[in-house]
Amino acid sequence: MPEEKPDLKIVSVGDVPWNEVKAQAHADGRRVSVWEKFLEWSPERMVIYARYDAGVIIERHSHKSDHFVFVVAGEVLIGDRPCPAGTHITLEHGAAFGPLVAGPEGATLYEIMTGDPRAVPADPEGFEELLARRGVQPLPNPPVPWPDWLAPRTDSSGSSPGSPPGAAG
User: Fold this and answer.
1) Residue 145 pLDDT > 90, yes or no?
2) Euclidean distance between CA atoms 142 and 105, whole angstroms
3) What count of Cα atoms within 13 Å lies in the side-chain half-sphere of residue 103?
4) How far apart are alpha carbons 112 and 40 in whole angstroms?
5) Which of 74, 97, 122, 132 could form a disulfide with 107 if both were Cys (CB 3.0 to 4.6 A apart)?
6) Which of 46-50, 116-120, 136-140 shows the lowest per-residue confidence on average (mean pLDDT)?
7) Predicted pLDDT of residue 19
8) Strand pairing class (31-41; 19-25)
């Protein structure tokens, strides 16, 4: 049996489409979203180039895998900690972070997850309270190209059971 050789994969971020994966209606009438380019998505890893619109709020959560985040541009507040461009975040499998709030210019992130990338809510009640205080309404998750081999989405969202899965967080 011939030995399998590892693949060389080269992807240009400009060749990959943006996918809206989370959306919110803010009190000022804006639709605010998380956008992701899936640079690689396999059972072993997920590599994302993400854009957070200004003010988007992501719940405190963990992932079902190790998760690495690099803030490329803008700023994101993680809990009480400002994370400007140049910040690296490492979350071991199951470590929770957030809530995440994109700064006034939004944020661009480069993310890698090693295994199951699905998010697991860490404080749903606190998230609902935060959204209510800020006048933010979660909108149904937009459909994304969810792979057949990955189980349905696990994060809380504006969607109801049976709606198309998404990928953010």
Assistant:
1) no
2) 23
3) 17
4) 9
5) 74
6) 116-120
7) 96
8) antiparallel
- Per the CB < 8 A criterion, the answer to whether 18 and 53 are in contact is no
Q: Which residues pair with 92 in a beta bridge?
A: none
Beta strands at 88-91 and 19-25: parallel, antiparallel or unpaired: unpaired
C-beta separation of 63 from 120 below 8 A: yes
Rounded CA gap, 157 and 166, in Å? 10
Residue matched to tokens 């609902």: 128
What are the Cα distances from residue 45, in Å, to 40, 42, 86, 87, 114?
Answer: 7, 5, 23, 21, 4
Rounded Cα gap, residues 118 and 75, in angstroms: 23
Is a pLDDT exceeding 70 seen at residue 168? no
Q: How many residues does the chain have?
A: 169
Looking at the DSSP bridge assignments, the partners of residue 101 are 57, 77
